[in-house]
């Protein structure tokens, strides 16, 4: 009888340990899911604010662009032979606005 009781007690203790371990795992999984949910919610809020600010700035700037008060500058390099120099100029800060390479019809 004494041997049976000790085996029974060992099984009971080990099942209690497993129960507390699985409870901790569930708590950890719940905390992780909560963190992920809050992170996604924060990113959506950031995107919403960013989109709102972008739309406000477009409504402010577009009339000036249409009137020609705000323009953009293009730096155009002509011909394929000037392509490497245009690329090097990018790394040396010699470009202004958009940097374009215009190919002539005879080069295509």
Layout of helices and strands, plus pairs?
Elements (H helix, E strand, L loop, with lengths): L1 H66 L6 E5 L4 H9 L6 E5 L6
Short description:
By secondary structure, the protein is mostly helical.
Key phrases:
108 residues, mainly alpha
Describe the structure.
The structure is a single chain. By secondary structure, this protein is mainly alpha-helical. It has 2 domains: 1-70; 72-108, no CATH class. Helix content is 69%, strand content 9%. The chain has helices at residues 2-67, 83-91; strands at 74-78, 98-102. The protein has a two-stranded parallel sheet. The longest helix is centred in the first third of the chain and has 66 residues, at 2-67.
Integer count of domains: 2
Provide mean pLDDT, rounded.
78
Strand order of the largest sheet: 1-2
Largest sheet: 2 strands, parallel
Task: Report low-confidence residues grouped into runs of 5 or more.
Answer: none
Rounded radius of gyration (Å): 34 Å
Distance between the termini: 97 Å
- Total strands: the figure is 2
Q: How much helix, percentage-wise, in residues?
A: 55-70%
> What is the count of helical runs?
2
Morphology call: elongated
Q: Beta fraction of the residues? A: 5-15%
Output the helix-strand order.
Answer: HEHE
Structural class: mainly alpha
InterPro entries: MDR_fam
GO biological process, one term: response to oxidative stress
GO molecular function: 2-alkenal reductase [NAD(P)H] activity
């Amino acid at each position: 009888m004494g041997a049976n009781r000790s085996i029974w007690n060992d099984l009971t203790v080990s099942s209690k340990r497993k129960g507390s371990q699985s409870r901790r795992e569930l708590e950890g999984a719940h905390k992780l899911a909560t963190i992920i949910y809050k992170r996604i919610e924060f990113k959506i809020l950031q995107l919403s604010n960013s989109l709102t600010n972008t739309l406000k700035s477009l409504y402010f700037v577009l009339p000036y662009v249409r009137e020609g008060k705000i323009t953009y500058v293009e730096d155009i390099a002509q011909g394929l032979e000037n392509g490497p120099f245009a690329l090097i100029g990018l790394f040396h800060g010699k470009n202004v606005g958009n940097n374009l390479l215009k190919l002539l019809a005879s080069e295509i």
